């Protein structure tokens, strides 16, 4: 069988089983797999959803004859690895996707009956996780389904990682745990001696700015919490607390205003970053500072008091080539300087708590599996894939487990159905056609990169026998 015949069979099988994949996506969306450690979530109630997803996927990969392994650093949050063993001598490809979701944005803003009751309309599927990223998890399954249906025997291993915890950067429970357990593509299931080359595809939603963009770069981010104190008093004392001739701060200080002062200072720094921070993989002005939550009160949420405590959480994006510690220092210093300009904050400085640093990711465009995927995308869609450049910024505008695959030395590209503009939003949805296109491209990339069994030039040969 020629390579062309194999590819044609695979593409036909993707089309033939698309409806089965959409049904799997509906089943996945119907499982509430909200990350149990997300802020504001009832942990006990949310626990178990991720495991129901990986159990379902385990059954579906088992039906296809894959060896299914569970990796569970936390027994209540099991990851699944499904291994399609190669015949030996080829390169290993990892397909990675997370099964957890964020909690839905405010329920009453959804037009749907329920975020966990999937609805199909106009070629789209609506529901929580439809874009981020149960459609990517589904596309990986459809790619494997088609390879099996077409009777393709790969030379290298194909490892599908369905992981937990991504939405809270819990990679030590998810992706890093799976890699540490040995599912890193470097120990060929076929038992060969040589350590094979490895590449990974993270199937996070990459359909902006163009449908199914290939993204080899993502920005880093810092998440931090700022807490400011005030002095509580009756709202009737406000004038005396703030007007000339009154009792001033000795009587009351409203922490709402002190917190807002610091938020404004950060937004000024954001303006400066918009002018001064750049990276060729990102559109000008990308590196922004998002205050995402703000709470203040005097222990009781009522305007009858001057609030004595304000707390706000911020996410700051920084360029892939920036030093994270230097970025942290700059943010901290900026807050300090802003506090120095205010008589109350000068003596009651804000407390800054650093909640997390999600490291950036960057893989060379020339990596063989990135090139294999670009060629496959072109063959499936007819659209040429341009290398990233300043004129064609292709940085992924969010963070993914690519950072942790790369930390383990595995070059990684982000490519998956769904549009990040629809993620973490009401009426989250995905265009179903993107799942089919993605699955076909990923399957062809696997053939190209892992090679076919019995293929002389197994790894990545173009135009084989
Ligand atoms: Zn995601």
From TrEMBL:
Name the InterPro entries on file: Peptidase_M20, Peptidase_M20_dimer, Peptidase_M20A
Q: Which residues form the Peptidase M20 dimerisation domain?
A: 220-339
* Database matches in PANTHER family: ACETYLORNITHINE DEACETYLASE (PTHR43808), PEPTIDASE M20 DIMERISATION DOMAIN-CONTAINING PROTEIN (PTHR43808:SF25)
Name the chain's protein.
Answer: M20/M25/M40 family metallo-hydrolase
